[in-house]
């Protein structure tokens, strides 16, 4: 057997079967064009030889490891440039693996363990990315201005020993040949994605460096607990420490839609932290905030800041994602985009808006029947329709079906669990089971303003006053501008109504109305509070406003909702009747 040591290069198209299913002739034509115009010329230019084609991939060898890696980087850069304007779902991207190994030569073909490792490296490379083995990284050293990320020992399929793997970042080729940024080294995922960059220490005190780094590490950990969010690990983001970066470049290199950056400053005994969330593609600011506190208990300060930032980022990104989905062409929408488009209509919580939301959510579920959060929101919409649309049993039955689907499919999705629990609590009045489910969701993400808002309402409906107040105030503190803040405000109104603090109840009911002027029950709580204060003129004004929003409102229909225990329901209905609302 003839043997030789060579640099082995394996490339393959990401999701080729899916692309063929979308457009078979177009995909084949595109693959052939990319090969003839980019891949083959680049391999030839870097003194490589194509050993064989493997359907949608290829095997090549290079006498020089340096040339093999420079070629891989050049191909990925060229492909990113060529496909930049192509819609994500139709974009053709390659994975590339490079290994140095001893191979068996048989005619023009090569075989052996070295080839197998290269093929497995290609399999774990990111779309549009390059993965190389440790011997390749060691031989290149500093001869190419290319950054490598050490991702540690990897267990590769059918390879007995662990293989140390590195991913390529950016750089320049030999003899000044610019390889440049691999513009889309990682493809954007369908769900929102974020990288938390190291915060800058601008205090002039080197000892504050540990606080800044610890804050970022805790932020990454806190965000990583949100299943609907892809969060880049610390080892990747800290490669940018001490560097002036362009967030657009960071977004391309890490494959994220958002970047969180910030700074830490200490003056006297105070520490001030600023943070800003940026959408990478347009370098546009989504959210910015500054907060400060005493440095006496620095760990407590760090915990409070992490809670505040993590809590506000989730709804801020949700708003940005909704805006992005609304900008997409109708023919380019997928299930996630349809779900995002439905959210503003769900939040409005009015009959017409609920129907619009349901139409979008049903279309999302047609495209992806196993989408837990779409099931959860569909359940909530049907619950709204049931209570406002005449208590039709079919609406209740289908709502519970969607809620159970959200439970089973979204066991690790706190958003789906909390919405499903809220719906089931309202429709079945099994508050104990609902609270257990919400507590499970809060264990996964204790800083979810959405889950805390639902929790506060379920607690208020079941007269768990302390829990209702605690969770409502925390939801409002975490997300003061949330479109769903009428939930915690209503919970606070109820908690105060049930404890006969009518002035406070009226204030919170008014805040709920300001948060969502279409939400009818907030007007009912305001009317009940004014009756409790013997302020019948104000109660009559509130009753008139309620009937403007919901002309079909009756006290008996409100009572039929059955959301409260008999004592509390009787008190509320008596107050509503006293204000002159229709029986």
TrEMBL record:
Residues 7-122 form the Guanylate cyclase domain. InterPro entries: A/G_cyclase, Adenylyl/Guanylyl_Cyclase_3/4, Nucleotide_cyclase, TPR-like_helical_dom_sf. It comes from Mesorhizobium delmotii. One of its GO terms (biological process) is cAMP biosynthetic process. PROSITE patterns: GUANYLATE_CYCLASE_2. PANTHER family: ADENYLATE CYCLASE, TERMINAL-DIFFERENTIATION SPECIFIC-RELATED (PTHR43081), PH-SENSITIVE ADENYLATE CYCLASE RV1264 (PTHR43081:SF19). One of its GO terms (molecular function) is adenylate cyclase activity. It comes from the Bacteria. This is Adenylate cyclase cya3. It holds the Pfam family Guanylate_cyc.
């Amino acid at each position: 057997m003839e043997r030789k040591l060579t640099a082995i290069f394996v490339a393959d198209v990401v999701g080729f079967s899916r692309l063929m299913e979308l457009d078979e002739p177009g995909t084949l034509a595109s693959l052939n064009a990319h090969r003839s115009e980019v891949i083959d010329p680049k391999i030839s230019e870097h003194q490589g030889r194509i050993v064989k084609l493997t359907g949608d991939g290829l095997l090549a060898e290079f006498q020089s490891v340096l040339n093999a890696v420079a070629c891989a980087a050049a191909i990925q850069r060229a492909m990113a440039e060529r496909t930049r304007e192509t819609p994500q779902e139709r974009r053709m991207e390659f994975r590339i693996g490079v290994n140095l190994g001893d191979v068996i030569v048989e005619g023009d073909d090569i075989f052996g363990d070295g080839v197998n490792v290269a093929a497995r490296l290609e399999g774990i490379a990111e779309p549009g990315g390059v993965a190389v083995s440790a011997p390749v990284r060691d031989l290149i050293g500093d001869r190419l201005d290319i950054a490598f990320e050490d991702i540690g020992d990897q267990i590769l399929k059918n390879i007995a020993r662990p293989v140390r793997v590195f991913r390529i970042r950016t750089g320049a080729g030999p003899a000044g040949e610019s390889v440049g940024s691999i513009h889309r080294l990682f493809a954007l995922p369908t769900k929102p994605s974020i990288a938390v960059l190291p915060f800058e220490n601008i205090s002039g005190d080197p000892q504050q460096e540990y606080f800044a780094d610890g804050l970022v590490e805790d932020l990454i950990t806190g965000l990583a607990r949100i299943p609907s969010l892809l969060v880049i690990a610390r080892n990747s983001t800290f490669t940018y420490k001490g560097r002036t970066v362009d967030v657009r470049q960071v977004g391309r290199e890490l494959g994220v839609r958002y970047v969180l950056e910030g700074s830490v400053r200490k003056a006297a005994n105070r520490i001030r932290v600023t943070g800003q969330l940026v959408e990478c593609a347009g370098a546009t600011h989504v959210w910015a905030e500054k907060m400060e506190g005493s440095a006496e208990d620095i760990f407590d300060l760090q915990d409070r800041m992490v809670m505040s930032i993590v809590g506000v980022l989730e709804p801020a990104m949700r708003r940005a994602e909704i805006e992005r989905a609304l900008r997409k062409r109708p023919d380019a929408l997928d299930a996630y985009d349809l779900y995002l488009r439905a959210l503003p209509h769900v939040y409005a919580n009015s009959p017409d808006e609920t129907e619009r939301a349901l139409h979008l959510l049903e279309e999302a579920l047609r495209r992806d029947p196993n989408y837990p959060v779409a099931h959860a929101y569909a359940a909530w919409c049907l619950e709204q329709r049931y209570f406002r649309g005449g208590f039709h049993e079919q609406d209740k039955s289908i709502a519970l079906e969607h809620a159970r689907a959200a439970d089973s499919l979204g066991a690790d999705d706190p958003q789906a669990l909390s919405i499903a629990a809220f719906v089931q609590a309202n429709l079945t009045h099994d508050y104990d089971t609902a609270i257990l489910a919400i507590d499970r969701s809060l264990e996964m993400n204790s800083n979810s303003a959405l889950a805390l808002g639902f929790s506060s309402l379920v607690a208020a409906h079941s007269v768990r006053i302390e829990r209702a107040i605690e969770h409502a105030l925390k939801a409002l503190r975490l997300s003061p501008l949330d479109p769903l803040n009428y939930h915690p405000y209503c919970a606070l109104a109820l908690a105060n109504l049930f404890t006969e603090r009518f002035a406070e109840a009226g204030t919170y009911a008014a805040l709920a109305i300001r948060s969502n002027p279409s939400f009818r029950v907030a007007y009912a709580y305001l009317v009940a509070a004014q009756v409790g204060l013997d302020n019948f003129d104000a109660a009559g004004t509130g009753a008139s406003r309620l009937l403007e929003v919901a002309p079909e409102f009756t006290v008996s229909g409100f009572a039929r909702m059955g959301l409260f225990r008999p004592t509390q329901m009787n008190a509320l209905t008596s107050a509503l009747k006293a204000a002159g609302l229709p029986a």
